[in-house]
Amino acid sequence: MISSKLPDVGTTIFTVMSKLATDCNAINLAQGFPGFDCFPFLHDLVTKYISEGYNQYAPMSGVPIFKQRIAEKTKLVYGVDFNGESEVTVVSGATEALFAAVTAVVRPGDEVILLEPSYDSYAPAVVLNGGLPVYVSLNLPDFSVDWDKVKSAITDKTRLIMVNTPHNPCGYVWTQDDLNTLAELIQDREIYVVSDEVYEHITFDGRKHLPLFSHPLLKERTFACGSFGKTFHITGWKIGYCLAPEKLTIEFRKIHQFLTFSTATPLQYALADFMVEPSRYLHLNDFYQNKRDLFCQGLKNTPFEFTPSQGSFFQTVYYGHLSQESDYDLAIRMTKELGVASIPVSVFYHDKTDHKLLRFCFAKEDDVLEKALDLLQKPFF
């Protein structure tokens, strides 16, 4: 009998709800993947590089021209310099980047602060490396950071803080005050930061994404993890990257080379060509804001309460004024009886705290969103 290293972990809620949506022929607004394809030109580029024989291992840290394009994008969008060769690493999805970064710095007995609700891969990465998760709840109702709680949670054993902006599942976008406060808290301690920024180009209502590396002190302490899956609607390609100063990148790559070693070669070349035109990522927030606005406008005709998401492609809704049914049970029942699948937000808390919130993904075609909204407007509670 194997003694499980993750005895409390089962099948992820995303798999559970997506399967249930399929089984019930329901609209899947649960799992966070776009319901539309990438640009046709990107298809053509992949075909080109496969046909031209770019089908063997890529360099461990990534194809050089692709890493350079990532560095150029970072400079253009945020005004921050990274060396493409020594400070940019291409990985097989942001989840790998998060795991490699945690593994690089966390030792048995180290404490890692997780801000809840948090994405479900964070805590397992900490536990598998012998770390001890320390959970700090975000403020309701906006899910901003309670910095007094974070300060109280820091001890001499704190080694790492994991952050997520724009936030999944709740859409909060960090402010300059957030960056400044975090820097003040860790400046005199050997504490590192893993920053999940996969929704960096999806912010709304004029908000700007502020990467943690835009703060000089945080840049020296941070592994910034990004994803082209979210940016270019190619989640199935599993291509992400990590930006970090050279001293951190050296340790990061030691782990990466024994996780996946390298990432699909023709896909990297195709993306390098595709990124030559910055408009392909600079206007993504407009594209998704239209979808968020369409979805939120429709939600006004439902009994749910909500505040429009600040970023990401998720919208949370509150139903506590309607029912005390658990969010998990409600999500299951809505999928079966109403035909719309969502994610119960309690699964993002280690102790399954239930604030009566559901998360919907609005990264779908407009007609799909409109059909889902029609169903959500039907009497249900």
TrEMBL record:
Pfam families reported for this sequence: Aminotran_1_2
GO CC annotations on file: cytoplasm
Similarity comment text for this entry: Belongs to the class-I pyridoxal-phosphate-dependent aminotransferase family.
Cofactors: pyridoxal 5'-phosphate
Name of the protein this chain belongs to: Methionine aminotransferase
Domain of life: Bacteria
InterPro entries registered for this protein in UniProt: Aminotransferase_I/II_large, Kynurenine-oxoglutarate_AT, PyrdxlP-dep_Trfase, PyrdxlP-dep_Trfase_major, PyrdxlP-dep_Trfase_small
Keyword annotations from UniProtKB, A to Z: Aminotransferase, Pyridoxal phosphate, Transferase
Molecular-function annotations in GO: kynurenine-oxoglutarate transaminase activity; pyridoxal phosphate binding
SUPFAM superfamilies in UniProt: PLP-dependent transferases
Coiled coil: none
Family annotation (CDD domains): AAT_like (cd00609)
Annotated ranges, domain Aminotransferase class I/classII large: 27-374
Organism: Aquiflexum gelatinilyticum
